[in-house]
Design brief:
Length: 190
């Protein structure tokens, strides 16, 4: 082998060894640092998004507080049927109907829940009830239902004479649907 070829081989071996050392240093030291910087950059981006949400919440804090206070005032005012669930609200409405009817000396013959419906942005829970009453009791019932809180609305009313009634009797068979407003779900949870 010639002396020139040996020098070239030594230089190539030294260059290969240098490249191997540099590659090892890059894979052991530089790459972990690059991965750590990428992870930190991603974490910073996530925390910036969270900070933006917190800042948006803080900016709307006064509006949220006003909405919460308005919602609480509406609940305290007695405008809405009380209760945490629709079933409890329906039971509460049935209890109110029974109480009002008993105060007028009338006994309910049946009562059942009506489907929940929405109208003009409000949800309404209702009960259909049947009873026997004379005309004065019916007038007193209607007045009592529509002049109390929570506000109740007579949605439907059917009046017919009682079948097989005595001559001169004023007894009427009355079926009515009464509804009450329920606070919107979004406002109730604030």
């Amino acid at each position: 082998m010639s002396e020139a070829l040996k020098r070239i081989l030594h230089r190539l071996a030294a260059l290969g060894l240098l490249l191997a050392v540099i590659g090892l240093a890059v894979s052991l030291f530089v790459m972990p640092l690059v991965h750590r910087f990428d992870a930190l950059r991603s974490e910073i981006a996530t925390e910036r998004e969270q900070l933006a949400r917190f800042e948006a919440f803080a900016a709307n804090k006064d509006a949220a507080k006003a909405l919460t206070e308005r919602s609480a005032a509406a609940i305290r005012s007695g405008l809405f049927l009380p209760g945490e669930t629709d079933a409890l609200r329906t039971a509460s409405l049935q209890a109110v109907i029974t109480e009002v009817a008993e105060k007028q000396g009338v006994r309910l013959t049946s009562a059942h829940a009506l489907p929940v419906h929405e109208r003009d942005g409000l949800r309404f829970i209702g009960v259909q009830a049947e009873l026997d009453a004379d005309i004065r009791q019916l007038q007193a019932l209607i007045l009592a239902f529509e002049s109390r809180r929570p506000y109740l609305f007579i949605q439907s009313l059917q009046v017919a004479p009682v079948a097989g009634r005595r001559q001169g009797s004023d007894d009427l068979k009355v079926r009515f649907g009464i509804v009450g407003a329920v606070q919107a779900e979004g406002e109730a949870k604030l």
